[in-house]
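Researcher: Before we compare anything, I want clean individual predictions. No alignment, no superposition, just each chain on its own. First chain goes here; please echo the sequence and then give the structure tokens.
Model: Echoing the first chain and its structure:
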Amino acid sequence: MKAVHVTAPGKFEFIDMPAPQLEPGKVLIRPQLISICGSDWPTVNHGRDWIPFPLNPGQPGHEVIAEVVASDAPGLEVGDKVLDIGYSGSARELLLRSPAEVLKLPAQPSAEELVCAQPLGVVLRAAQRWPSILGKSAVVIGQGAIGQFFTMLLKQQGAGPIITLDLEDGRLMTSKKMGATHTINSGKEDAIQAVKDLTGGQGADFVIEAVGTDPTYNMVKDLVRMEGLVQCFGMPKQRSTGLFLWELMMRNPMVIMTQRGKREDFQLALDMIGSGQAYVKPLMSHSFPITEIATAFQMAESRADNAMKITMQCTW
């Protein structure tokens, strides 16, 4: 079978490797659509100090819609469309999964929208750990897909004002559709002062970091009020960081860190997208065949052409 093999930063090869065989109680699935996560492109394009090259065949790819092609698992039939939550090497023609690693899709909407259930599920895991945010002022740093999901959930849970920060005006325009009451381009204005002006000089009750860089994490200490709430979600690009933890600790905040979802979170995300409660269509921007994976990953990093959520069709 065919698989993607990343041999060095930004270097993609298509290789042949042995296909998995069906095992008792499991299913074989064929990926049909893979979405690029914001944690994927830094690993692939530049590398991380704890992930050596070459990557394992099939990496990256953990936001996946697939079709069951063989099954020895009750309730899963050949032809069923599923969300793959197996988190391992999905850029291959075939994957062996246990029933716990897949979720059947609702009939609607499109696969491009339903694949968002994977990242949304992780955001929902974070939100289920929050105290009540009803009427609380909130800031979301970063308005990529993850930041947009946070903005949507803040609105649904009654937070306000909801202030979003990003360097791209297009993403800030989208965040208005997702629930932001105020948007700040932090490359064009003093975001910290703007947030203080909007919160009576106190800082926000709740600050969410959804980027993962030292400069954005270091903004948190200046954005959150004394004894406020902080959600750390952006994946750091490297292990050793230059975070100003002393200054943040002096704000005496409650800090929540989240990076993984559970099966029930992904099911909830599918239900919300399927029912229209989570409207993700504004986030879908570009689609490529998987044979153009290098171009797709370059666009994910550059954000060219207002790129937001990029998918790849698995047409090998």
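Researcher: Okay. Second chain, same rules.
Model: Second chain and its structure:
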Amino acid sequence: MKAIKIVGIILMILATVVLITIYLLPDNAHMERKILIESQPEAVYTELISFRTFNEWSPWATKDPMAEYLWDGPVIGVGARISWKSTVVGNGSMQIVEVMENRKVVNLMKFDEYESDPTAAFILNSVVGGTEVVWTYDESDVQGLAKIFMLGIDGFLGEDYEQGLLALKERVESAPDFQFPMNLRTIAPFQYLGIRDSTVNDPALVSTMMAQNYGELVTYMSIRGVETTGNPLAVFTDFGYADLSFVCGYPVADQLSGNGRIELFRQEGGPAIVLNCQGGYENLDKGYDQIMEFAAFYNYDLVDDPWEEYITDPETNPDTATWTTKIYYPVQ
């Protein structure tokens, strides 16, 4: 009996020591890995701002090829979300909760039957030779026995992070070398006064018709005292090989009813590929080809009508080599 009491006392002491140890353990967990990617931060950020290509480099995707994935929320940026169901890696989700353009992307992670909500951040530092990418894991308010588990988080996740960063590096560095700069943007909705038109796909004829339409719009706005809020644009509603249908317009803030050929249009907002085309209008075809290659590489679908914004006025700057035209192409 005495021996049993002694064993009981020892067990109580051990239990007390364990509880005190657990109590004294930190309630925050942190783990990180880093790698140098020989590309600019913009290229890395483009890969991380959406989950469309996440499984191209995710260290967990290859562990269960039969896992089911669902993408929802916005296409890019805060709110974009991926969820999965897997008999190997479990069920969970990841959602973008914070972004700093070309500098940082923070994801909130949720796992079934796990109460805590850890975060994983990608921190992009521009350095000599490219971009230092730091991938972190952070969890706060860790309670109970989970504190002991967190002591081994580095060994538990570290190798996965290293494999993921190596795959991310390979993918980013293998991206096509695009002639014109472009990126993904969330475009705010806007309205514009415009004139619908169509013609055969002849550049000279298109330019002549557009010039006439813009002149008519400028006269209309001048007579009515309407001020434009941006550069002239053209929305292409039918982008055929032989024929073109388009709307020439000027963005405006006023609510107007239009008159005759002139109508008030609304361009819905949303994610779009935005390309800065340098040089004369003959380069625009190259720009569209580049956009299609970009969309294919990053797994986006081109949707709705593209539009062009004419930054340079040919009448005031005849040097075509210095012209800038922005192409916007909505994606999903």
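Researcher: What stands out in the second chain?
Model: The first strand starts at residue 29 and ends at 37. Additionally, Residues 104 and 123 are 5 Å apart (CA to CA).
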